[in-house]
Amino acid sequence: MKKTLNFLILLVFALFISVNLQAQTATAPTDGAGTADDPYEISSIENLNWISQNSWTWSKHFIQMQDIDASETSGYGTTYFKGFNPIGR
């Protein structure tokens, strides 16, 4: 009984986080190839969300092209996780 209850709590929590994270728009950069000679050009919060949601990109190269207003990310997350989804480890 206790294992079943713990599993159900974990499942509800995972679904809640999944739905909440999907609300964040993740848009791949349109310029750059992620190499040292041609880094991905990051220009928006949507580009940063794309990086944070795709761990395979963390070993790539990036260049920030402009200031990015991330104030909207203060509302991201849940009671247990507030703010922007971290990039990297």
Short description:
This protein is mainly α. The chain is 34% helix and 7% strand.
Strand content: 5-15%
Task: Name the poorly predicted regions.
Answer: 15-22
Mean pLDDT: 78
Order of helices and strands: HEHE
For the sheet with most strands, the description reads:
2 strands, parallel
Over all CA atoms, what is the radius of gyration?
16 Å
CA-to-CA gap between the ends?
Answer: 35 Å
Strand element count:
2
Strand order of the largest sheet: 1-2
Number of helices: 2
- Structural shape: globular
* Helix content bin: 25-40%
Structural class determined from secondary elements: mainly alpha
3D architecture notes:
The protein has 89 residues and is mostly helical. Helices cover 34% and strands 7% of the residues. It is built from 2 helices and 2 strands. Strands 1-2 form a two-stranded parallel sheet. α2 links the parallel β1 and β2. The longest helix has 21 residues. It is globular, with a radius of gyration of 16 Å. The chain starts with a helix and ends in a 25-residue tail after the last strand. The relative contact order is 0.17. About 9% of the residues have low confidence.
